[in-house]
Amino acid sequence: MKKSTILLIVGFVLLWNSGFIGAEYGLPFTGPFTLIFWRYLAVTALIALYLIIRRRLKWLGLKVISLNMLIGFLAHGVWLTCVLLALDNKVPAGIVALVVALQPLATGALSGYVTREETNKYQWWGLILGFIGVVITVAFRIDFSSSSSVFGYLIPLGSVIGITIATLIQRRMEINDEKEKLPLDQSLFYQSLATMLALAFPAIFVEKLATDWVPEFIYAMTWLILAVSLGAYLLMWRLIERLDATRVASLFYLGPPVTMLMAWLTFGDKINITDVGGIAVVSFGILLTQKK
């Protein structure tokens, strides 16, 4: 694997999972719908300004724009909304991480049908090992005495469905070099626009855009906008251009252990020996998914 691709992977994993820390900072000051709405209103405005300066903001046809907006709605809107709603419904973060970690298995199972990229035996073993590593990491942290509604526990499945479909659609466009494929800056603009428009209704009419604009919230939003929504997603689509869908999806297995490490550094959360063991199993599983 090229050094540049390895750097992309490291950057993506760190920036993507820092979003959970940013959300934990931001949620006490606003609702989940409103947080995502403000975030993507700012992201859309920033990318629009960039495209205007570069004279690249243009109408590209309904079919092209609608497909890219669908990808954005699934990869940004559905993914984030389901994660934040689950946390807001008091579902333990470990449960959310565990359910969301089903995404690599879902992508591996469906990629052969959608992208015609077969998942080889090494990748299947890697996906299974990665999932076992996530279970090891999360299971010992779950408070089984805490009960939540069945609906709350099912919410993260929406994130799995959304990001899996978005990844497969994007990868298929990359493989077939379809005309709907846009340059990254234009694609991210329409993806962000779709997310902002989709979240506007619940943010305005359900949560009334209620927000406590304290410095902590502003700092969290700045990080979520620049580092996660722009940085992490840009790196993810770059990786999808270089690697097959299963290999990119396997990186999501690093979510729970990396997030726990960040929480330890940021909030002083305790790291258990089972966390270290889980990280080791996850890392070995991901190495197998990269093997051809």
UniProtKB/TrEMBL annotation:
Ribosomal protein is among the record's keywords: no
Domain EamA as annotated: residue spans: 4-138, 151-289
Location relative to the cell: Membrane
Assigned keywords, A-Z: Membrane, Transmembrane, Transmembrane helix
Presence of the UniProt keyword Cell wall biogenesis/degradation in the record: no
InterPro entries for this protein: AA-Vitamin_Transporters, EamA_dom, EmrE-like
Residue ranges crossing the lipid bilayer per the database entry: 33-53, 65-87, 93-112, 124-144, 150-168, 188-205, 217-236, 248-265, 271-289
Domain of life: Bacteria
Protein name as it appears in the record: Permease of the drug/metabolite transporter (DMT) superfamily
